[in-house]
Amino acid sequence: MKCPVCKGNMSVVKDVMPKEKVGFEAYKCENCGEELVNMAQLKSLAQKYRELRRAKDVRFAKWGNSLAIRIPTELVDELGIHEGMHALIRKEKEALKIMPG
Ligand SMILES: [Zn+2]
Predict the structure, then answer these.
(1) How far does the centroid of ligand 1 lie from the alpha carbon of residue 11, in Å?
(2) CB-based burial of residue 8 (10 Å sphere; 0-12 exposed, 13-18 middle, 19+ buried)?
(3) How far is the CA of 76 from the centre of ligand 1 (A)?
(4) 57-68 tens-digit pLDDT
């Protein structure tokens, strides 16, 4: 891919939106530094922002020696989860993934 500004060579770079910490991929000109994203890269970024908007802010609370978080009612209803139900929890990169059932 050639740079639309200077016709220089463009290579794929991975970067992070500093505020939201959303990672993205773009083409960057090795000559002038111009950056652009293609349709697939744009769609991927839009998807990440949609997920971020859906995310709820929760706070960790002390529960014995462990920490607990409240699951928002909206998610409880959507997932059909209830008190006493089992779930698996695992670390996934810098996140926690909770799988009910
Ligand atoms: Zn350029």
Answers:
(1) 11
(2) middle
(3) 50
(4) 899 999 999 999
